[in-house]
Amino acid sequence: MTEGKGEVVCEQGKLIKVSKDKQGIVSRDVLTKKWTDWVDYRAVDFDYESWKEIIKVPKRMGFEGELPSVIKDDEEFIDFEERWTGAYIFENEWQSFRTRQDRDLELASASHTYAKPDRYVVAVKVIDIFCNDTMTLVPVTVG
C-alpha cells in the first residue's frame, strides 16, 4: 500500500479500513463493530399481498398456447390479456437508510393501523453494505 492511501479488507468477519499516512504509519479502523453496521437500508410493506404483479401477454401464450417466438400473426394486432405472475409488488411504506453524513439506522419502524380485522402479510426488506437485498414475510392477524 502506498503512503497516503487506504483500503478496506475483510478479516475474521469484520470490515477493517487499513490506511497508511504520509509518514508510513499504518492504522487499522474496524468499520463493523455490531450487526447493524452491515445494514444500509430497511423498508417495510405493511400489506404486501395487496398489490399483485400483473403482466400483459399474448392470449395464445402460456401453458396451452404457443411461445412468443413461435406466434405468427397474420392480423395487424395481437390480442393481449392480463395475467397474475403469482408474485406481489413490494410497496415501500416505511424506510430507514444510512448516508455518509448520518450513519444511524432506525431499528423500529413507524406504527401502522389496519383499516379492518383480517390476515395481512408484512414484508421487511433489508439491503446490506454490499448491495445484497433480502426480504422476509411475516403473517399478522388483526382483530
Describe the fold and architecture.
This protein is 0% helix and 47% strand. Strands 7-4-8-9 form a four-stranded antiparallel β-sheet, with no helix packed on it. It has a three-stranded antiparallel β-sheet with strand order 1-2-3, with no helix packed on it. A two-stranded antiparallel sheet has the order 5-6. The N and C termini lie far apart (61 Å). The protein is mainly beta and 143 residues long. It folds into three domains: 33 residues, no CATH class; 68 residues; 31 residues, no CATH class. The mean pLDDT is 88.
Write the layout of secondary structure elements.
Blueprint: E1 5-11, E2 14-20, E3 26-30, E4 39-45, E5 52-58, E6 80-88, E7 94-97, E8 118-128, E9 133-142
Compact summary:
This protein is mainly β and 143 residues long.
Low-confidence stretches: none
Biggest β-sheet: count, sense, barrel? 4 strands, antiparallel
* Helix share bin: under 10%
Number of domains: 3
- For the CA atoms, what is the radius of gyration? 24 Å
Structure summary, number of beta strands: 9
Which strand order spans the largest sheet, edge to edge or round the barrel? 7-4-8-9
Beta-sheet strand percentage? over 45%
Shape: elongated
Q: Average pLDDT value?
A: 88
Structural class: mainly beta
Output the keywords.
single chain; 143 residues; mainly beta; four-stranded antiparallel β-sheet; 0% helix; 47% strand
